[in-house]
Amino acid sequence: MTAPVLLFFVLAALSVVFSLAVVFQRNPVHSAMALVVTLFLVAILFLTLDAPMVGILQILVYAGAIMVLFLFVIMLLNPEALERRRALWWGLGSIAGLLLVFEFADFLSDIPRQAAQGAAVGEGFGGPEQLAQSLFHDFVLPFEVASVLLLVAIVGAVVLAKREG
Amino acid sequence: MIVELGIIAAKALLVLFMVLNLAGVMGWVERKGSALIQDRIGANRASVLGFAGLGLVNTLIADPIKFLTKEDFIPPSGDRLLHTLAPCLALFPALVTFAVIPFGDVLVVGGREINLQVANINVGILYIFAMASLSVYGIVIGAWASNNKFSLLGGVRGAAQMISYEIAMGLSVMGILMVYGTLELQQIVRSQGQLLWGWLPAWGVFLQPVALLLFSAAAVAETKRIPFDLPEGESEIVAGFHTEYSGGKFLMFFTGEFAEMVTSAGLIATLYFGGWQVPYLLRDGFHFPWGGTWLLPQLAVVLLQVGAFTLKVVFFCWLFVLLRWTLPRFRYDQVMRLGWKMLLPLALLNVMVTGVVIVALQGGR
Amino acid sequence: MVPLDYYLFLSGVLFAIGVVGVVIRRNLIVILMSIELMLNAVNLTFIAFARSLGSMEGQVIVFFVMTVAAAEAVIGLAIIISIFRHRQTLDPQEMQLLRW
């Protein structure tokens, strides 16, 4: 087993463990912290796939901003009661999830195997210049639409969260 | 291979050693500085066998001993795991950020070029912001795990404040990125070695003066020091997020704050004051604009550069201390208003003006 | 090197875990977090294909997914806050005014 494969397996195992913790921890703060670790691990997986810019953005936007917002809301509402574990419901849900995983495995076994790092890429693939080239040349319109979307989200959040009166 | 790894390890250890030591020394400077400003003598009680002459050294040794021998208190109704994890989360980002800050140019030893920077990654500045954004967790998690109303208030304040000022901080650096056209910090510092009109070094402070002010304000807010120490606010909420912390864990929060301060000083020096650049010093010696040259051996040049960088960092650390003991604390609504209604629009305006100027200078291509 | 389907399978597993979270949890905030986990799994697929095909487009799509995820999280949390103000609960089963 070569070093990259070993690294992949370590990262993959850790991210599965922590994402399971997101779902099966009863305490929402523990769930949130587990999700932060998962996002961090996925960012490292992005780095192994030559996507440094997106990897850093993942940490900056997801782990650094969105998840802080989640924690902020959990702390603000501070719901006292932990939710009850309902064994039947949780068992059925887990079995459905396992079936979904088998479905993926079955689907993947049909397609021809190829290396993830197959295509030859030039220097700076996934770096800021290339991402910017793509973003501001081929995807200008979606980019502008995304900025409008963010503006709408900000206004909407302010209106929704504002107290009446 | 072994040599390469050894060099990287040596650089990493050197930087870590420097940051931690500077953080420790800052703890002493803070007390002495406050004493100076308040017309006291201060921090003169630490003595070894009755000898108190070396105040600095004694305090540096006495402080950690005091912290580490105190009881490590965990609130019975708190969350044990997260309570222990939080100080690590607070210290970790502050220590790893310095990895991308260059502390010198290239050192050539035996034909091998050593880049005086721990990690040269092509998204350097974004890495710094990513790590800075992670430093919120230490506060929020520590506050929540303490299961204390004062801690929780401090944590909520800290989370809101740090997210708000991150935006202003990021946007104020945009101008620098546009001027120098790169995200790599070593490239940014190299570009600052050029001369404007043949005599003025092209430092960020001359090209982006407004951004410097915005960035410094945001940096102080990010380190949660007075006038932005609302998350602690000892006159309002006891000690804020670290109310329930004592002993070694408190020491970690404490060191984390000073390490963040050193990193912020390093960033201000790197982005706006030429990093390791000494005016008119090129790789082979001084080339003065009035025609004189003074050639120096390579090692002397590198030493001068590293010395200049250290001096700049120490100066800005001192400025932070001065700031802390001069200004009173803001009210919370003032902090939010400053961040969202003044720094953010000014930073946006700065980006726009910078863009217009760059396009005008390039002849409107 | 690492085969492409390893990444795809990992992404599938993470997605399935997210689905399980949405199905079994009764806390709106955790449900929203599970949705973020699913979005992230899809991002991993995009990045893996971008590398395998040597094209930047997959990475740009991830950029847009992040934007949408940020907007979604903000709106979702704002809705959760306003619901909590009215009903003092985060359990979606308790919100049954329109149920017959």
Q: What are its keywords?
A:
heterotrimer, B: mainly alpha, two-stranded antiparallel ribbon, 12 helices, globular, C: 100 residues, mainly alpha, Helix Hairpins, 3 helices, elongated
What does this structure look like?
The complex is a heterotrimer of chains A (165), B (365) and C (100). By secondary structure, chain A is an all-alpha fold. Chain A has helices spanning 3-24, 28-48, 52-77, 87-110, 128-138, 140-161. Chain A has 2 domains: 1-79, Four Helix Bundle (Hemerythrin (Met), subunit A), CATH 1.20.120.1200; 123-165. Chain A is globular and about 55 Å long. Chain B has 365 residues and is mainly alpha-helical. Chain B has one domain (2-361). Chain B has helices spanning 2-37, 55-68, 80-96, 124-134, 136-145, 149-180, 185-191, 204-207, 209-222, 247-272, 298-326, 332-361; strands at residues 106-109, 112-115, 195-196, 200-201, 281-282, 285-287, 293-295. In chain B, the strands form 3 sheets. Chain B has a 3-stranded antiparallel β-sheet, with no helix packed on it. Chain B has a two-stranded antiparallel sheet with strand order 1-2. In chain B, strands 3-4 form a two-stranded antiparallel ribbon. The longest helix of chain B is centred in the first third of the chain and has 36 residues, at 2-37. Chain B is globular and about 70 Å long. Chain C has helices at residues 4-24, 28-53, 57-87. In chain C, helix 1 packs antiparallel against helix 2. Chain C starts with a helix and ends in a 13-residue tail after the last helix. Classes of the chains: A mainly alpha (165), B mainly alpha (365), C mainly alpha (100). Chains A and C meet through helix 1, helix 2, helix 3, helix 4 and helix 5 of A and helix 1, helix 2 and helix 3 of C.
Order of helices and strands of chain C: HHH
Number of extended strands of chain A? 0
Q: Report the uncertain regions of chain A.
A: none
CATH topology of the largest domain in chain A: Four Helix Bundle (Hemerythrin (Met), subunit A)
At the first level of CATH, the class of the largest domain in chain A is Mainly Alpha
Question: What is the CA-based Rg of chain A, rounded?
Answer: 20 Å
Largest sheet of chain C: none
Global mean pLDDT of chain A: 83
> Residue share in helices of chain C?
over 70%
**Largest sheet of chain A at a glance?**
none
Shape by Cα distribution of chain A: globular
What is the overall silhouette of chain C?
elongated
Q: How does CATH name the architecture of chain C?
A: Orthogonal Bundle
- The CA-CA distance between the termini of chain C, in Å, is 56 Å
Order of helices and strands of chain A: HHHHHH
Distance between the termini of chain A: 65 Å
Derived from helix and strand composition plus strand pairing, the structural class of chain C reads mainly alpha
- What percentage of the residues of chain C does DSSP assign to strands (E)? under 5%
For the record, the count of structural domains of chain A works out to: 2
Number of strands of chain C: 0
